[in-house]
Design goal:
The protein has about 450 residues and is of the alpha/beta class. It has 2 domains: about 5-130, no CATH class; about 145-445, Alpha-Beta Barrel (TIM Barrel). It has 13 helices and 20 strands. It has helices at about 40-45, 115-130, 145-150, 155-170, 200-210, 225-230, 255-270, 295-310, 325-330, 355-360, 385-395, 410-420, 430-435, and strands at about 5-10, 15-20, 30, 60-65, 65-70, 75-80, 90-95, 100-105, 110-115, 145, 175-180, 210-215, 220-225, 235-245, 245-250, 275-280, 315-320, 335, 370-375, 400. An 8-stranded parallel β-sheet has the order 19-18-17-16-12-11-10-20. It has a 5-stranded antiparallel β-sheet with strand order 3-2-5-6-9. It has a 4-stranded antiparallel β-sheet with strand order 1-8-7-4, with no helix packed on it. Helix 7 (about 255-270) runs parallel beside helix 8 (about 295-310) and helix 11 (about 385-395) runs parallel beside helix 12 (about 410-420). The chain is globular and about 65 Å long. The model has no long low-confidence stretch (mean pLDDT about 95).
């Protein structure tokens, strides 16, 4: 790391720190001193934090490209931040020595003072979005997603059952999004799974109701055991973690073969009638490692995301997930700004509101970078967190989606889903009071 960027006099008992996480699933919050965010398991460093970057020490707060210090003394908030993120995103670290916080960085950042933490974040968001070429976000469609009810066991029959139920239930659904489970697997091209033998017919059926068809993709990684990985080992870059029962590898987004493959996949889906793409596990495009072209991981990632944007066409709506935050600005319509609501096995809500902390803290990004996706509402009676999750989405959710089997909703669940899906917010920034409320760590829960 470089030398000290700035030194801030603080009240250690009252100071607060905002440290931007690397990607959607990275913990991000306003925190008091002494509560650093660290992965519990080694694999989480790759899949939830920033691979290739050393983790913070126990007495250090670390941010990726953005760190704000609210001294707690009445003095101005101090912001350390990048002006753009097309080539590199510096890692910032804050350490405390008595009543002084020292911030260092491994790259060029700007240091500035602001009249409070809200101004520090919102003014950064406005300036950074302009530099990245991000225009005003488009309104987000209202979405039904298959994932949190069916997971990888989803079939076309499940989709059709719910499609038929929306009207009778009075639910406003503009996009029917089929999540993971529709294809034979990562690296198997577009070969449908057994439960989707007629994907074109299903897309046509969705569109015949006046709704749009959406689909899930993890375009920047493949399983190490898949056909694509075996056929094209020169396409692979580094360890991307583990999922789907196998090790994962990132794709070299500078390789001509990879770029042709990705463009073809997206164009084929768009030609099928799909115009809403949930692009997941995008962190794999920015893994450290050797590539065909000698460019930084951040530059490679942006080039790949730009490729998908162009291949999908101007009418497609792109939602990012598991995506590097600052390098994605200007290329996505919406962004998941939090971890998954729950994983398989946590359907009862016993793991708590996993996504709430980062969703609340990133409220300032809504309408500046994109539409904030809080993840799906789950309102069925077996989910113990449903009432608090619904309240959180109502306050901090930009994109509205739900992920229940309609037939399993009780009166409360149906009424709540109907209300939240009907009352979608505008795509602009949240009101100042909402952003102000997001500064209160007491309103959040740990991941």
């Amino acid at each position: 790391m470089s030398g000290t960027l700035t030194e801030v006099v603080v009240d250690p008992a009252r100071a607060r720190f905002y440290a931007e996480g690397w990607q959607s699933w990275s913990p991000t919050t306003w925190a008091a001193w002494g509560s650093p965010q660290r992965p519990a398991e080694p694999w989480q460093h790759t899949m939830r934090f920033r691979p290739g970057t050393p983790l913070p020490e126990d007495d250090t707060i670390q941010g990726e490209g953005l760190l704000v210090v609210d001294p707690g003394t009445g003095a101005p908030a101090v912001r350390c931040a990048v002006a753009e993120a097309t080539e590199k995103v510096p890692t910032l670290r804050a350490s405390l020595d008595g009543d002084r916080v020292r911030v260092s960085s491994d790259g060029a950042v700007d240091v500035s003072e602001h009249d409070g933490p809200v101004a520090a974040l919102t003014s950064f968001g406005d300036a950074f979005a302009t530099a990245a070429g991000a225009g005003a976000p488009r309104p987000a469609p209202r979405v039904w997603c298959s994932w949190y009810r069916y997971f990888e066991e989803v079939t076309a029959r499940d989709v059709v059952e719910n499609l038929s139920a929306f009207e009778d239930a009075g639910l406003v659904v503009e996009v029917v999004q089929i999540d993971d489970g529709w294809s034979a697997g990562l690296g198997e091209h577009l070969r449908p799974a057994a439960g989707f033998s007629d994907l074109p017919g299903l897309v046509d059926r969705i569109r015949s109701t006046g709704r749009r068809a959406g689909i899930w993709l993890a375009p920047f990684l493949v399983g190490a055991d898949t056909a694509l990985a075996h056929e094209h080992p020169d396409w692979l870059v580094g360890d991307a973690g583990r999922n789907w029962g196998q090790e994962l590898r990132g794709l070299d987004l500078t390789h001509p073969g990879v770029r042709e493959h990705l463009a073809t996949v997206v164009r084929d889906l768009v030609d099928l009638g799909v115009d809403y793409l949930k692009l997941d596990f995008l962190y794999a495009g920015a893994l450290p490692g050797r590539r065909r072209e000698d460019v930084s991981p951040v530059a490679a990632y942006r080039s790949g995301l730009q490729l998908l944007r162009e291949a999908a066409g101007p009418g497609a709506y792109l939602l990012g997930c598991g995506a590097p935050i600052l390098p994605s600005v200007g290329l996505l319509d919406a962004m998941r700004v939090s971890p998954d609501t729950f994983h398989e096995g946590g359907e009862d809500g016993s793991t708590g509101l996993r996504g709430r902390m980062s969703l609340v803290a990133r409220a300032w990004q809504q309408g500046r970078f994109w539409v904030n996706d809080p993840d799906s509402l789950v309102a069925r009676p077996t989910y113990s967190q449903r009432e608090r999750w619904a309240e959180t989405i109502a306050m901090y959710g930009g994109l509205r989606s739900f992920s229940d089997r309609v037939a399993e909703l009780d009166p409360w669940g149906l009424d709540t889903t109907r209300r939240l899906m009907s009352d979608a917010p505008a795509p602009g920034p949240f009101a100042a009071a909402v952003v102000e409320r997001s500064l209160d760590p007491a309103s959040e829960e740990p991941v």
